Amino acid sequence: MEVARQAIAEQRVDQAPELARRRKRRMLAPVINATGVLLHTNLGRAPVGIELAATYSNLELDLESGRRGSRQRAVGDLLATACGAEAAMVVNNCAGAVLLTLAALGAGRGVAVSRGEMVEIGGGFRIPDVMRQSGARLVEVGTTNRSRFSDYADALTDDDDLAMILKVHRSNYEIVGFTEDVDVSDLRELDVPIVADIGSGLLDSGCPWLSGPPPPWLADEPAARQTLRSGADLVLFSGDKLFGGPQAGIIAGRLDLVERCARHPLARALRPGDLVLWALQLTTVAYLDRRGADIPFWKMASTPVAELAERAAKICAAVDTGTVAPTVEAVPTEAVPGGGTLPTVTIPSYGLQLGGDVSEQLRERERPVVARVDQGLTLLDLRTVAPVDDDELVDALGTLAAGSR
Ligand SMILES: *Cc1c(COP(=O)(O)O)cnc(C)c1O
């Protein structure tokens, strides 16, 4: 409607349908992620869904006392239980969690960070810049490839006002060769709080929510529960990476420190809305009930390759490509966790390979299919496609085949 009005006002009536079509393409829409990147930043990272009619909620009402409550309370308590912390709170994203923690606990004081952990996460999140914004003073420790316990101990002796040690997970890069690093467990004997930004949001390295053992591709990814147990006073992580929930940042750990974060004025600016809290609560309860299969990310991540291969074969058989191109073939593929986590890791997978680059036609569909193009071939990886969408792929591939006849 609005597009039509504008076209009339600008005397471009003939262009109205095209303008409307383009406007619609820019709107948020469900897409099929056939890239094999489980946490695709361009596609909203972890897939989440909530079914909820328009309703009020007890967001900030304590139903027991009838008085005003905290929106952090319910989900915070669940998250604390899930990662074995005294307390937890939620902000907009992990970048917000780092900013708030530094501002609340470190403003005007020193914060020690290893030179090997001065990370940049995609989208311009750089530790030294965030530090400056928070008002904390960066105290650099060690060298790019080697940081020792004595470097941290010296920082504590040399700086007369060190607020904390910040450990930052090298989520999206690795340092190899002549390296040395200090674990949280070694630092705990120093008399200063340790805050660990683990980023990726793996809750527990034992993955008790899965029916099998932890997948091998998780390798040495740090987990919230184990990092706290090894001596971190706070852990910070994303809600929409390996946690598999909505975009959020979680601060979990010592009650007094979480409370200081919650009381800081920035907490109000960074607070999550109720839709996010609903989705986060759903995800956290699934963890507590050990229902990993109800967390879409974990369901996709842990699907056996044989199952994906079977689906690929079925889709292939169902597509009538006739005798002409494009050819559709079921092939083994390699999926990746994505989302700036586990940069060197691949997950065995299965998918469909098409001759030529047909990614644009697939994207133009009513329900866009986002594929991967590699060396002139189009690849649809089934690890990131929900089985209910297989029919949609059959239709998409059938349409391509018909189009090329
Ligand atoms: C991803 C990441 C962040 C940023 O998290 P967002 O939720 O995207 O804001 C911060 N720190 C680390 C170590 C990360 O991996």
Bound molecules: pyridoxal-5'-phosphate
Q: Say which CATH homologous superfamily of the largest domain is assigned.
A: Type I PLP-dependent aspartate aminotransferase-like (Major domain)
Give the fraction of residues assigned to helices. 25-40%
Which strand order does the major sheet show?
A: 3-11-10-9-8-4-7
CATH class identity of the largest domain: Alpha Beta
**Average of pLDDT:** 93
The count of strands amounts to: 16
Strand residue content? 15-25%
CATH architecture designation of the largest domain: 3-Layer(aba) Sandwich
Cα-atom Rg, whole angstroms? 24 Å
CATH topology (level 3) name of the largest domain: Aspartate Aminotransferase, domain 2
| Structural class by helix and strand composition | alpha/beta
Q: Give the end-to-end Cα distance, rounded to a whole number of Å.
A: 37 Å
For the largest beta-sheet, the strand count, sense and barrel status come to: 7 strands, mixed
Tally of individual domains: 2
Number of helices: 15
Detailed description of the structure:
Helix 1 crosses helix 2, helix 3 (73-83) packs parallel to helix 11 (274-288) and helix 4 (94-106) packs across helix 5. This protein folds into two domains: 21-47 and 303-404, Aspartate Aminotransferase, domain 1 (Alpha-Beta Complex); 73-297, 3-Layer(aba) Sandwich (Aspartate Aminotransferase, domain 2). The longest helix is centred in the last third of the chain and has 15 residues, at 274-288. It has helices at residues 2-9, 16-26, 73-83, 94-106, 127-134, 149-158, 184-187, 224-229, 255-263, 265-269, 274-288, 296-301, 305-318, 359-363, 390-403; strands at 32-33, 37-39, 87-91, 110-114, 120-121, 125-126, 137-141, 162-168, 194-199, 234-238, 249-253, 328-338, 347-355, 369-370, 372-374, 377-381. By secondary structure, the protein is of the alpha/beta class. Strands 3-11-10-9-8-4-7 form a seven-stranded mixed beta sheet, with helices on both faces. A five-stranded mixed beta sheet has the order 2-12-13-16-15. Strands 1-14 form a two-stranded parallel ribbon. It has 15 helices and 16 strands. The chain starts with a helix and ends with a helix. Pyridoxal-5'-phosphate binds at residues 93-95, 98, 119, 121, 125, 168-169, 171, 197, 199-200, 238, 249, 340. Pyridoxal-5'-phosphate (PLP) binds at residues 93-95, 98, 119, 121, 125, 168-169, 171, 197, 199-200, 238, 249, 340.
